[in-house]
Amino acid sequence: MTDTMTAAPETGIFTRDQVEILSARKGEPGWLLDARMRAHGAFADAPMPSTRLEDWRYTDIKKALKLDAFSFAEERGPISGAGFAAGLTALMDEAGESAATLVQVDASVVLRELPEELAAQGVIFTSLEMAVQQHPELVQRFLGTGVTPDDGKFAAMNESLWTGGAFLYVPRDVQVEAPFRVYRWIGEGGTAAFGRTLVVAEQGAKVAVVETLGSDDFGTQALSVGAAEIFADEGATAIYTSVQRYGRGVIHLSTDRLMAGRDAKITTLYATFGADLARADVQCRLRAPGSHVDMLGLYIADGTQHFDNQTLQDHLAPHASSNLLFKGALNDAGRSVFRGLIRVHPKAQRTDAYQTNRNLILSDRARADSLPNLEIQADDVRCSHAATVGQLDEEEVFYLLSRGIPKAEAVRLVVFGFFGEVLEQLPLEGVKQELLRVVERKLDASR
Amino acid sequence: MPFNEDVAALGLDEYKFGFKDDIEYLFKSRKGLDEEIVRMVSAQKNEPEWMLKNRLKALKHAQARPWPEWGGDLSGLNFEDIFFYIRPNEKVGKTWDEVPEAIKNTFERLGIPDQERRILAGVGAQYESEVVYHSLKAEWEDAGVIFKGMDDGLREHEDLVREYFGTVVPFRDNFFAAVNTAVWSGGSFVYIPKGVKLDMPLQAYFRINAEAMGQFERTLIIVEEGAQVQYIEGCTAPSYSQDSFHSGVIEIIVKDNARCRYTTIQNWSHNVYNLVTQRAKVGRHGTMEWVDGNLGSKLTMKYPSCYLMGEGARGEILSIAYAGPGQHQDAGGKVVHAAPHTSSRIVSKSISRGSGRSSYRGLLHVQPGAHHSRSNVECDALLLDEEARTDTYPYINIEDQNAQIGHEATVSKIGDEQLFYLMSRGLSEDAAATMVVRGFIEPIAKELPLEYAVELNRLIELEMEGSVG
Questions:
Q1: Is the CB of residue B282 less than 8 Å from the CB of residue B254?
Q2: d(Cα B249, Cα B279) in Å, to the nearest integer?
Q3: CA-CA distance, A330 to A219, in Å (whole number)?
Q4: How far away is chain B from the Cα of A263, in angstroms, using its nearest Cα?
Q5: Could you tell me the pTM of the whole model?
Q6: Which residue from B388, B391, B407 is facing A386, i.e. has the nearest CB?
Q7: Residue A325: exposed, middle, or buried by beta-carbon count in 10 A (0-12, 13-18, 19+)?
Q8: What confidence tens digit (pLDDT) does each residue in A25-73 have?
Q9: How far is B359 from chain A (nearest CA, A)?
């Protein structure tokens, strides 16, 4: 590092005092206050990432983000559906199948609905704040073990300042097919919100979470700094879908860690449509033999949107497999960065790992940067990656034209098919249909 | 696993040219790098004033610039402990007889004169920091082809050198380019006049001999419109215990409709830091091909580059890397598409064994306006045992909508199934392994000019193919 490593001066709301005040107000146990303070230390010590850092080479967050401009997102009491902002209601109305619902508006979880039969099976689905009070042992065992302050300035920022949050616990062998819905809504520009999600699927459990992030368009900058920790124990299946539909003006930075135990199966989908600048730092750890991870991503940028996906398929154990497919389309002056790494540790023999990133550039002002990396330290492995950047397949468009389909429609169909390959792999039929509609609308809006 | 032991026993990693000669050095500068050393180098060469000024500017830049912190581990490299200039002989030899006996012995053992007698067009051999031997076939001299040591090139063709020197790799480009510009010595100067097509390759042979000695060769190749040339550079160095440092800069200008192929086989002994900047600027419908083999050295960081500046220009980079125990080959290639309808291809094959680490590091950049550019990158890595490591770090930056870019990489080990199949056909395990490795590097090995570059093939065979079987 050639950057001077001087601690950033405490700016705006991001002070040590604020962390203490927050924790005291929530009446948190000592271990959690300690964790928050440690994280704040790491946050304050870390300089704002500059483009000289390899991880941030193509995303100039230092320039984009003015930390002293934000106030905390507001704390709110319970709200019923009728009190929701129109945009939030619209997001929720689009959702199909659902096992249970939790809604965070700004700093607080304002609504939680969990059917009695799931609660009776021992499923816990509540705000993370509430879980700290009601299930402290469980939360303490997992919270902060996936995403740690070492995961960067923004992970530490979230850990020191998270509020509300979602906690989902699925006991051994309990299998829930329909997705749990988590909504995070930012109500005002100029505010900063820190959502956090913790999901624990015990042995043989099955769970799916769909997290939808939204807001209106803002004239001033709003900040969303999120974190998610997903644990799938032996033989468990976990699906985690993040649908980012923030309005203009929002900067969204998330740090997510997903841990797969023996024979566990994890599927993630990151669907990125909104915000001015969005960056997801997603790592899947294959910690035990037999684990399998599918990482999916789709993004559509238009205007001057800038999307950055950083992924890691971390093979720590032998006989595990992972497969990544991220696809994006870039319109106007939209920009995407994909930096993916397959890392195979020395003991992780018999690894199967694949990584594919494909980008469609639909405008001459758009730009795609793709960095598909491999670091392989075991020899008995099958690993490959591929990246492509290109325009629409002219032959496909021509074929459709020859069938009498108008040009605009033909282009739309081809782009649609491009993303279909990603969505086909999502094992949630209803969510797939919802997302296809979002894709369609975003493409229409881009044209 | 018996196979691994067999591979080790084959001595793939042993350095075959680890002999060293006793030569009395006429001039030996002290260790370290500062203004006095730079002035001394320049004074020794009796250079024009502008070159000295250029050296000093570059030195200043290098001193102000932080050490590179990416890529390989450079912590073992200490500038205070390196000779930046040594000159073995006052005179550049014109015929083989004029070359000192001890130096000649080194070359005899590498087989250079034999080759020259046969087919080679010209030989520029760099022993230590000076070119000591040079020849060029008469008919090409008549055609205006210039193939000289860089020092002679500067003396005799100052205008040409001044026009092009540092235009492809400016000293500000990177830290080691700055160091090279400050203390460069030797290397080749090649000028191919308009329309002249050489069908036999030019060849330079480089050797480092003195302990802890930096070698900073500077090569400038100018291929005028419609001309064609192949240039071959191979390196071997005796083994020494103290780390040596090699940092060359190769600049190539390929003008409109011209064609250049530059082939390097790098086989430094396993204590050499090899940090090289190789770059070509390609004009309209010109073609640049880099064939880059990295077998030796402790750490190599080398990414031959093509800047496709003219419409329809084409760049091709073929790279083989072999990293045995203790070696790190950080190789790859870069292509910048700066004009429409340009195309490029990078094929990289790497083999890692023991604690060896081979990395592919590459850049594909399509600039705005470089529409209808096409590029394809293929990286394949072969791991010979469970300790070996391979990395792939491609950078793909696309800023034009009408570009088609593909990148693919695979990692594999020698497959039990492949071995089993070949052994079921009656091959021994060793022979089967050899065949698999040969098959693996075949797409690049077949691009090597077999008829011409005899020792090139010998090195490849000794280090990679012959030794395995």
A1: yes
A2: 8
A3: 23
A4: 24
A5: 0.83
A6: B407
A7: buried
A8: 999 999 999 999 999 999 999 999 999 888 899 999 999 998 888 999 9
A9: 9
